[in-house]
Design brief:
Blueprint lengths: L8 H22 L4 H18 L1 H16 L1 H10 L4 H15 L8 H19 L3 E2 L8 E2 L9 H9 L1 E2 L3 E2 L8 H6 L4 H33 L1 H4 L2 H21 L5 H46 L18 H7 L58
Antiparallel strand pairs: 1-2, 3-4
Length: about 375
């Protein structure tokens, strides 16, 4: 096959290329013609694509959380500008920008998975034998190549059978002559197809159930919305029913794809929800620590600030006043605090109390001279 720029070969070639690589890896020790090799090639094709899409998937989950958080504000905007569609659109876009919400981010993984399913379905159908046309006896044959796979690989995939004679590319409603060309057994296809279909439907239901439960846990009001309730019912019942009803018309390899894809999605949701809960718990802990620190660092109105040791903080001006020195601009030495009021010549305005006789001068102070007593007349 040659690459066609006007077709979906942009999807078919990458899908078949990843599947070809895994077939070569598992075929190296399981055998290239083994049915298990082809089943593992399909399963690990899904795992590879889902691993590549894990980061966009986490962005989708974060975007959904942000959208749920701003739902009350969205509701107010809708009520306020319900008569002005243009202003409503502008305000909603403004709110999404401020909250860092991208509505398309929540749809990106689903938009990518849909082409992958279409591509895989097309590639697997290309492995089925075809006839030479409606005229004359039908002659069935395998294609020369299927994208990255050569003719030998195409024949190997067409003849790969599960125990009992069920071809991997066969389906329960396959035409009898086409099935006979592959030496397939319809009963074996049905025996494998029904359990795979039921398991794929159960996996789809469990995955949808976990998503709906998470939505109700994060935003009860949104889940009560009639439109949301309808979508939840579709996810819980209609999607699994579609898998079960469509099972008889899809190759067994597609049923393995559905089972592997939904099982991966279920486990990935659990991991993603655990990561989100841990981040939310860490964020809440940081907020609580900041609140606790603000309680101890910010004094109550009217209370004196305390130092790190818990003692009251004394202002420097009050320390100076308690030592008798005045503050700048008062023109004195703390008269307001009870200190001596000095005059211009430095003399105290109040008479100092006399010191008791015989008292010793303070260390470093000059001894004061005492005036001799006047003698009375007649004394020597």
């Amino acid at each position: 096959m040659t690459f066609n720029f006007w077709s979906l070969d942009y999807i078919y070639y990458p899908v078949s290329g990843i599947m070809w690589v895994w077939h070569k890896i598992f075929g190296s020790f399981l055998g290239p013609n083994s049915a298990l090799t082809w089943v593992l090639s399909v399963v690990f094709l899904i795992f590879t694509l889902r691993a590549i899409l894990f980061k966009p998937f986490m962005k989708q989950m974060d975007s959904q959380l942000k959208m749920q958080a701003i739902q009350p504000q969205m509701k107010k905007i809708r009520e306020k500008y319900k008569d002005d569609k243009q202003r409503l659109s502008e305000e909603m876009m403004k709110l999404n920008k401020e909250a860092g919400v991208n509505p398309l981010a929540s749809c990106l993984p689903a938009l990518i998975q849909a082409p992958v399913f279409i591509g895989l379905f097309h590639v697997l159908r290309m492995f089925q034998p075809v006839n030479d046309g409606p005229e004359g006896p039908s002659v069935w044959f395998y294609r020369a190549n299927v994208y990255f796979f050569g003719h030998e690989d195409v024949v190997s995939m067409g003849e790969a059978k599960l125990p009992g004679g069920a071809p991997l590319v066969g389906f329960m409603t396959m035409p009898l002559d086409q099935l006979n060309f592959m030496d397939g057994v319809r009963e074996a296809i049905i025996w494998w197809g029904i359990p795979l279909t039921i398991l794929a439907g159960i996996a789809t239901h469990l995955t949808s159930r976990r998503s709906v439960a998470r939505q109700r846990e994060m935003n009860i009001d949104a889940s009560a919305n009639p439109q949301t309730a309808i979508m939840n019912k579709l996810m819980l019942y209609m999607f699994p029913l579609f898998v079960v009803v469509g099972g008889p018309f899809f190759p067994l390899a597609i049923l393995f794809y559905w089972l592997a894809n939904n099982s991966w999605t279920f486990g990935q949701l659990r991991v993603a929800h655990t990561m989100q809960d841990r981040r939310a718990a860490a964020k809440a802990q940081v907020v609580e620590e900041v609140k606790d620190l603000s309680k101890f660092s910010t004094p109550k109105p009217g209370a004196k600030p305390k130092s790190a040791t818990g003692r009251p903080v004394v202002e420097p001006s009050k320390i100076a006043d308690s030592n008798g020195s005045g503050s700048p601009g008062t023109g004195g030495n703390g008269a307001a605090n009870g200190g001596p009021n000095l005059t211009k010549n430095g003399a105290s305005g109040s008479t100092p109390k006399p010191k008791p006789a015989g008292s010793k001068p303070a260390p470093g102070a000059r001894p004061q001279r005492t005036q001799p007593k006047k003698k009375n007349s007649g004394q020597r």
